[in-house]
Amino acid sequence: MSSTAVVGDPVLELRGATLSLGGRELWSDLDLQLQPGAFLAVLGPNGAGKSSLIRAILGDLRLRTGAVQVQGVARGASGTTVGYIPQQRLFDRGVGLRARDLVGFGLDGHRLGLPLPGRERRSRIDAALDRTGVLHLADAPLGTLSGGEQQRVRIAQALIARPRLLLCDEPLLSLDPGHQIAVTEAIDDYRRETGAAVLFVTHDVNPILDRIDQVLYLGPRGHRLGRPREVLSTEVLSDLYDAHVDVLDVHGRIIVVAGPADDEQHGLVDELPAASAGRSA
């Protein structure tokens, strides 16, 4: 397992964080620090609050208790640099917006008025597209690109502003293995080159298992934070689900299997991530 994390001032910090939605508590008393260069995987069943964690960091959701800071600044304040890669949503085939246009929004889309044309702007857009392997598609309409190509353009959009923190919300969802590898490499290469911290929400940890430093597992009975082999264990997951769960290592892949089905455990397998087949939970 490789790491480029550097001990120092954290890029991201949550202290005593509790989040509730619709009267239901998703997670509570969450303490988390991400150092520069860290790569954290966030795992857990549907409804555990994985994507909501990202929304709380972005300032879109308000914590019930606790605080979140990015580079020492409370979320919602100016001057913090965060890149966000959303879950894949395909553009309609009729969308004429070009790949370079979408990436350009990541550079100056927040400013009032039209972006100024210029050699430097074009150079930065081309560099971001080249980093994710889609420079040859710069002038192609987004609606004509495959799902994997569209996702790589979104990553270029997230990276162009040179963020110090990269928030990835299931960026591998619905991608074939080839595009999963390309997307993962683009994100990890950026982390290694710049020292940015990465928070990566996923259902299947296997495609990134050899790259991550830590795992945050959000379960029905709390959460655990630690090194992958410390968190992804039979003892820990059984405790988080209050039911027996087997965690197997098969040729370097993590396989999570529930115990014998009964009235209380029925359906547990469908809620567990990190299955060897990469099936969504």
Q: What keywords describe this structure?
A:
281 residues, 12 strands, alpha/beta, 6-stranded mixed sheet, 4-stranded antiparallel sheet, disordered C terminus, 8 helices
Lay out the secondary structure.
Layout: E1 12-21, E2 24-34, E3 39-43, H1 50-58, E4 65-70, E5 73-74, E6 82-85, H2 99-108, H3 119-131, H4 147-159, E7 165-169, H5 177-194, E8 197-201, E9 214-219, E10 222-226, H6 228-231, H7 234-241, E11 245-250, E12 253-258, H8 268-271
Parallel strand pairs: 3-8, 3-9, 6-7, 7-8
Antiparallel strand pairs: 1-2, 1-4, 4-5, 9-10, 11-12
Written account of the structure:
- The protein has a domain at 92-160.
- The two termini are 25 Å apart.
- It is built from 8 helices and 12 strands.
- The chain has 281 residues and is an alpha/beta fold.
- A hairpin with a 2-residue loop joins strand 9 (214-219) and strand 10.
- It is globular and about 55 Å long.
Report the total helices.
8
- Along the chain, the helix and strand elements come as EEEHEEEHHHEHEEEHHEEH
Global morphology: globular
Low-confidence stretches: 261-271, 274-281
| Overall pLDDT | 85
Query: How large is the share of residues in beta strands?
Result: 25-35%
Radius of gyration: 19 Å
Measured distance between first and last alpha carbons: 25 Å
Helix content: 25-40%
Output the strand order for the largest sheet: 6-7-8-3-9-10
Structural class: alpha/beta
Annotation, overall tally of beta strands: 12
Task: Name the quaternary structure.
Answer: single chain
Report the biggest beta sheet as strand number plus sense, adding barrel if it closes. Answer: 6 strands, mixed
